[in-house]
Amino acid sequence: MTTRTDEPAASELVGTFGLFPADMPRPRADDLTAPYWEACAGHQLVIQQCGACGHHRHLPTRICPRCQSDSFGWDPSAGTGRIYSHVTVHHPAHAAVRDVVPYSVVVVRLDDCDGVLIVSNLVGVAPDDIEIDTPVHVVWDDLDDGVSLYRFAVSEPAVSEPAGGAR
Amino acid sequence: MTAVATAWPMRDRTAIAGIGETEYTRAGRATRTEFELACEAIVAAVADAGLTLADVDGLCTYSGDRNTPADVAQALGLGDLRYVGLAPGGGNAAAATIHDASMAVHSESAGVVVCYRSLCQGQFGRLGQARDGRGQSASPVGATIGGRDQFHMPFGLMSPVQRYALDARRHMHRYGTRSEHFGAVSVASYGHAQRNPRAVMYGRPLTMEDHQSSRMIADPYRLYDCCQESDGACALVVTSAERARDLPTPPALIAGAAQGMAAGDGLDRWARPDDLWTSAGMVTTARDLYARAGIGPDEIDVAQLYENFTGQVLMTIEDFGFCPRGESGPFVEDGRLEWPDGGLPTNTSGGNLAEAYIHGLSLVVEGVRQIRGTSTAQVDGAEHCLVVAGPTAPPSSALILRRDR
Known about the structure:
Chain A is mainly beta. Chain A is 5% helix and 34% strand. The longest helix of chain B has 16 residues, at 160-175.
């Protein structure tokens, strides 16, 4: 791996949205999760899907909790959903976020993929303005070295869109 | 409540006969090692029971391998050990370890089992900081993070209070619960601590205004919604009810013990169904517990309810049937959790918030004091004390302690 001469300082905010600094922990993929993060690098959110019964699951695991099959694939999501819960962090639990608190974390229920819940961030909305059930869609945060993470942004509501998938 | 056809085989057959505690301090202030404190608490509990170390033939603890039964037994020079228990998890196991010991005694696998927990966050790292892994083998987080947290930490979800706050937010959204309801739990624990000279927060009372103006940690959780970080240890002696009756202090009978994890629950919080986000995850455990003790929530005189965080105490109150689902906020208004006039005095020595955070085992100790009549906030004639271990921390556990008639 070549050494970059323009690497950001550890504390400098990085990425498309400048949400977190360069020393924010990055995902360390393993053989199970590598396809998930590789899809992210290509700006595609994929959700693990059982090869036997078709049930989607997140977080990725090796065994389907519905039918116990170890056969699975990765199903592309349209990347739309609704805010299910949120927390605004004021007290930093890690040195990397000392200068970015307060920041918010959201849990999104996807419209597809059996309505799995996924942890991320909401861009472009002040912490106090985040509301449960707001429709959102994936936006891609390109960090560096090919790492891309999914974040979410508020969607304009469609005229006749039903509420998010029941579970 | 439907009557049980046959009584639970262990109902009232085992008892807690001795309790021991070290000094409790803020994290970092203990003057001895966590291991030494474990030994000190065990020695104290055995003496309190009117027994000797030679009588001990079983050891039970939980949450990892820093102070294993084998190490403790050798350090204390115990005789033959015939039963060893090490329950998984953290505060979720505070009642399970008693259940474990009582099963050993009832099955005659051992005669005198000591349950203990020593936790010095000042010596081994703080549970509230971002960590790679869980439990006592966790390490500081490096540049990358694997395991489940690869899906959390890059997005800023980094510590327990943040995860539990997400559940509290759902409870607020679904049922209209407010921060003041969380504060009622804090005010009760701190108020009781003012009567307990051994409580870390003794001399530091807390009003609702103090709670509401305290700094936000992970919205909606404020500073005073969170359990302390302490150094300390405690221990309890479990033996048969018959043997306990021959010992100096009144036995705290174990009327019921239960543990478990709800279907669909687990450490992957995103795989849980909706209802488990707004529950302590203990509905089945509560049902089992009451059936085994042969009573219902109306017979509970006093409760020790594990405060990892205050909102989770509200969910515990619902799971254990003290009020309908979703109504724990109104339930805790008007001082209902506060001794002496509240209908459900809760955390009567200060709890995890204000006495000390020993992973919940100090709540069992206070339960025993209530049964003996020796609490600093004693409920008159307390016959039944409910003790619930870590809510929303599967697999969790609970006990009902009963005064011997």
